[in-house]
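Need residues for this backbone.
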């Protein structure tokens, strides 16, 4: 009887929370952990991984906003784990994040993401929640495994940058299909509509198990206006109900997205100049500047992480200068990909909130364009996907396509 009363109280609380939060946006703070040996591993570029983590958060927030999901993801921490060897995969590594000292070490934010090797074809592993967990473990930080060399995409118009949001929603209770979604409702008080369906565009929605086959610009969510012809699948409504509860996996918010990064195109010196500012100046600290873009398959799409030292009392860093030609190499690799070129600074206690798009600051570099023979199918355009890639580049591509169209019309006449 006591159990039953407790359940009822918890359910009433859950219900009132979701009603109170209707229309307002919930926030999940996400931490990122990686095996320390990755710092010396030539097959892993931490700039690609950290920028990819931020980029995946950006594309998730943009998708949620466009599709009516009242949820915002925020970065809150990036750190290495010294007990990991670098041989863990998304499944074994994720399990370790639930165990002993590693569980405590990775208990940061509402959800903690571990970067590991893929396990065969498995590139992500969420923390599968069920309805009863919200009653009995309401403040249990979710642990997620995510594959390396993936979050910036692998080239072409694919949805690898959405794998993070897919695993985040698994960790709220989402499933791939209807049969599994029924199992979420293990206490007969949960919903059964948190799963994927085929949308109006003919592609699977965000929770499909074959997410990487969905073109980046075609990604949507079941229950959104372009994916709601089967009333039983409604990830938008499901997420809006459970997100206010999952936002308390870590009680309260860290609100430590306080690093500001200023990037300047210094034409006199032919350098991009990076200056980071922090809030807490009480101690010496080494922060890290990560610059990457494009897609990971390019290889040369990222620069090595660079240390930024602060002395006690210092709020603004020294100027970090990087030659135009060095940064232009990344611009070249990113050109035509779904991602632009970005910079982000991460400290031990403070992080940057959003990426800075370095291509958008540039005024001198111009891409060498090889026009697509058929403007109808064109190269992937980040604006179609709602990404925030360099406006000048996109405009230039558009102009090129318009020119090509005029030429073709003339020839046809
Ligand atoms: Zn999945």
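Answer:
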């Amino acid at each position: 009887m006591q159990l039953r009363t407790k359940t009822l109280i918890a359910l009433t609380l859950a219900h009132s929370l979701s009603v109170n939060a209707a229309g307002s946006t919930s926030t999940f703070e996400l931490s990122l952990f990686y095996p320390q040996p990755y710092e010396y591993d030539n097959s892993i570029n931490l700039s690609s991984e950290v920028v990819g983590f931020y980029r995946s958060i950006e594309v998730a927030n943009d998708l949620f906003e466009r599709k009516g999901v009242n949820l915002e993801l925020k970065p809150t921490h990036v750190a290495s784990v010294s007990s990991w060897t670098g041989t863990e995969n998304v499944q074994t590594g994720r399990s370790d994040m639930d165990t002993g000292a590693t569980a405590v070490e990775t208990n940061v934010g509402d959800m903690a993401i571990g970067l590991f090797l893929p396990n065969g074809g498995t590139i992500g592993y969420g923390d599968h929640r069920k309805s009863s967990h919200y009653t009995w473990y309401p403040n249990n930080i979710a642990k997620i495994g995510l594959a390396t060399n993936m979050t910036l995409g692998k080239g072409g118009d694919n949805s690898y940058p959405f794998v993070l949001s897919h695993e985040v929603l698994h960790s709220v209770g989402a499933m791939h299909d209807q049969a599994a979604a029924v199992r979420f409702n293990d206490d007969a008080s949960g919903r059964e509509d948190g799963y994927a369906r085929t949308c109006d565009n003919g592609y699977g929605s965000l929770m499909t198990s074959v997410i990487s086959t969905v073109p980046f610009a075609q990604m949507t969510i079941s229950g959104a206006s372009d994916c709601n012809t089967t009333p039983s699948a409604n990830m938008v409504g499901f997420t809006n109900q459970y997100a206010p509860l999952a936002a308390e996996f870590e009680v309260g918010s860290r609100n430590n997205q306080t690093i500001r990064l200023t990037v300047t195109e210094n034409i006199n010196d032919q350098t991009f100049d990076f200056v980071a500012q922090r809030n807490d100046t009480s101690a010496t600290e080494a922060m890290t500047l990560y610059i990457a873009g494009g897609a990971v398959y390019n290889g040369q799409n990222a620069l090595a992480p660079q240390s930024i030292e602060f002395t006690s009392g210092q709020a603004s860093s020294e100027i970090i200068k990087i030659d135009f030609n060095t940064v232009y190499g990344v611009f070249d690799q990113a050109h035509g990909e779904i991602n632009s070129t970005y910079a982000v600074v991460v400290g031990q206690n403070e992080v940057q909130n959003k990426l800075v798009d370095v291509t958008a600051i540039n005024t001198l570099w111009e891409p060498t364009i090889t026009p697509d023979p058929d403007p109808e199918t064109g190269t992937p355009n980040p604006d179609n996907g709602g990404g925030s890639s360099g406006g000048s580049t996109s405009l230039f591509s558009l102009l090129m396509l318009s020119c090509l169209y005029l030429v073709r019309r003339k020839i046809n006449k």
